[in-house]
Amino acid sequence: MVSGLSFQNISNKNQLSAVIIQGPVYSSIYQQLSPQLTYCITIINSTDDSARSFQIDVFTNVNSMPGHTFFMNLKSNIENDGHFYTDVNGMYLIQRSYDKRMKFEANIYPMITEAMIEDDKLRCTILGAQSTGVTSKLGVLTLMIDREMYNDDGKGLEYYEASESHPSHLKYRIIFEAKMPLSDDFNRKKRVDENKSENDSLPMNMQNTLYHSQFVQQILEELLYPAALFSSSNINSTDDNDMISTMIGLPSIPDNIQLITARYIAQKTILISMRQLPYDCSVRSYSKGNTNLV
């Protein structure tokens, strides 16, 4: 969806046929909707918890459309009645409400990593690998994707900097989770109320806050810090000592690489999973007895 003077759907006159890739681990569909927008949807071929989420990759290049803003609509049957949640610096979720008395742009809130809508039966969470703006009406989450400015608005970067829009690769994860039955939720709240209300210990301005589930936290970490895979076939046995010697023999890697697991996947073959953590490796590390940090 594109917003210039008014909202309009992207014209499909330049739309290309979809390309489908199927595999034993995951399947993807790619499609170019316009010269400015291409998307990819990836689902995991599994029956475990990981299959409850799917990834959307959006590729944008809007430098040929000044004065336009691109949005993505996620439609669902969730009856959220204009209420939605956004995260506060990735720590917790706070409730927002769509105010019909105000213009559309006045109802857009910052989404640092997460936005969520829910009703009594279902919760839909969308995670972003990059910050954006979001709003929601009945059952619809609307995310800002990209935009190209006509000129400087006088409130930030100079026009030359603000007018540059480079091609972008945006990553999102969408998760659907069934809500706890009302009877179970009532019993849980009753047990809490026997001691102290959940909200009694919270400041007044935090009584409309929520936290995401452990599963959403797992998906968020996978989105922000994707794992990398390495394999080695130069193994003569399945002895643990050989595995250790193989790992020692790997080329040196930066210290912001975290080992997830190392295991045999076949005879003489080890699979090593790693992820890259986002911290600066150029600073001098502190060690006991080393006080020269200048």
Automatic annotation (TrEMBL):
This is Glycosyl hydrolase family 38 C-terminal domain-containing protein. Residues 9-154 form the Glycosyl hydrolase family 38 C-terminal domain. One of its GO terms (molecular function) is alpha-mannosidase activity. Pfam families: Glyco_hydro_38C (PF07748). Signal peptide: none annotated. GO terms for cellular component: Golgi membrane. Transmembrane segments: none annotated. InterPro entries: Gal_mutarotase_sf_dom, Glyco_hydro_38_C, Glycosyl_Hydrlase_38. One of its GO terms (biological process) is N-glycan processing.
